[in-house]
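Researcher: Re-running this chain for the archive, since the previous output was lost when a drive failed. Same request as before.
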Amino acid sequence: MADSDASKEFDNGLTLFKAGNLLRALGHFEKSMEAQPTALCASYYAYCMAKERGHVTKGIDLCRKSLAQEPGNPVHYLNLARIHLLGPNKEEALTVLRDGMQHAHDPELAALLNQVGIRKPPVIQSLRRDNPINKFLGILLSKFGMR
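Model: Regenerated structure tokens:
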């Protein structure tokens, strides 16, 4: 398959992805990856594979490799966060989204971050968020409307 064919497959997959047809998009991304793997295609392929086939771990690994190749591309952060949200890793998804916002102010990243929810910083920032003191103070200050 030529480079132009791989590019066409990726473009077709991206169109289907944006239309919400992830299963058909997965097939196009798969063909594009076989012909000419790129970081951008791998990122979309990773999310589609995790969503449609349930290969969340493999999707995370593939998306992280894409992110390592192109750390300034907000699409990689977005897809990695979406994969984390498929499982019970909401905290990890928030971390990825925050990292993405530091690298590039993308409206899709901001929208997903607002949708998932932004947590307030810990009361005592030198302690971990799950520290009992931070939990207690956070609850107490919230009840009094001071937080």
